[in-house]
């Protein structure tokens, strides 16, 4: 642009008339609903039942987020001759657990409660033991996952019964139809990798010993 044509408007001229479109930044206020409190929704369920279900579901949520992340850890760190199949299987289970995370969190919100979300809160709440940061052998990875699944299954069964007793059919259905069934199926897929069978040549000595 030649200096002759340089008739650029000043900043104030540029901004005039755009005030209502400007984002209002750096805002702060008290939260509108503290964690642990219920904002009752018209779902024909007693507030106490909603509160109990939400508390239980937040426990399951923290454990589901943890097992989901454990799957991703193992997806990245798996080693050995079964690398490729386990790399894929771990990521498949990660995806299924990730879907459960969203379903559980949205159930909690549907009950008028607040779902946990952030990593430090999940770490404080989960019942699943923290793994080391480093890489572990495949049998250890599998055992660790199976133990985590069993923690979830045990608490899910208890919580399903409590939800049923309170008349919270939606929570009972989520626990039974989605959480328990998904975790049981994933246990089967993992546990079969820990059966000590030969890869190429049948072990006749073990077969003979078992027959005696
Ligand atoms: Fe990946």
What do you see in this structure?
The chain has 212 residues and is an all-alpha fold. It has a single domain, classed as Ferritin, CATH 1.20.1260.10. The protein has helices at residues 11-15, 47-77, 83-110, 119-125, 138-165, 169-191, 204-211. Helix 2 runs antiparallel to helix 3 (83-110), helix 2 (47-77) packs across helix 4 (119-125) and helix 3 runs antiparallel to helix 6 (169-191). It starts with 10 loop residues before the first helix and ends with a helix. Fe (ii) ion is lined by residues 75, 91.
Please provide a brief summary of the model.
The protein has 212 residues and is mostly helical.
SSE layout:
Layout: H1 11-15, H2 47-77, H3 83-110, H4 119-125, H5 138-165, H6 169-191, H7 204-211
Helix pairs in contact: 2-3, 2-4, 2-5, 3-6, 5-6
This protein binds fe (ii) ion.
Residues 75, 91 line the site of fe (ii) ion.
